[in-house]
Amino acid sequence: MASGGAMTPGTDVMRCRYETDDVRAVVEHAHDAGLPVTAHAHGLPAVEQVLAAGVDGIEHCSCITESGISMSDQLVERLAASRVVVCPTLGKTAGGTPPPGVLEIMKRTGMTWEARLAQVARMHHAGVRLISGADAGIHNGKPHGILPEAVADLVLGGVDTAHALASATSAAADALGLGQRKGRLRAGYDADVLVVRGNPLADITALKDVDAVVLRGAQPKPGRA
Question: Do 27 and 14 meet the contact criterion of CB atoms below 8 Å apart?
Fold first, then answer.
């Protein structure tokens, strides 16, 4: 938690929670143990701090300032060059209202959803490694099962569809260290398959029209509510 969180009372998303040396110490000790580090970072200072500290992933990477989203060309270039993985946590229900904390930040800074989508697409086109996650379950505007909307938001923002799909499959598997057995349809890989009615390359919303789910070669039984 390199910055405060929008859902955490008493914290400020614009402020860093730690000194850079402390974050760097976490990264160094984790790497010595063979572990990656992902940092939650909303505010621009926290994004710059964790990038300098050498984290492997950044959750959100919103780059929020008091006047909205601010991401310089130099910062985008550094993100791309570092090969850090960025999960922008897009996805929301149609017509859903953001949580009160998020609404307050948007009002305070002038940040808009459209600006956020454009920022993420800009990172993609600059070569930043993007994967899809959704912060699912934090609010009724972001319920569990919202990942298809997160992928669709990438396309809406200007990311080409093939890369958007990879952000939730092969690129995500690579980022999690599972790229040698998951995220792709290949001989010898785990047979994890999502079957949809339609072609998501032509219409990304087909991801929501699920026909079957296969997990390691078998269809899991539906869970009980």
Answer: no
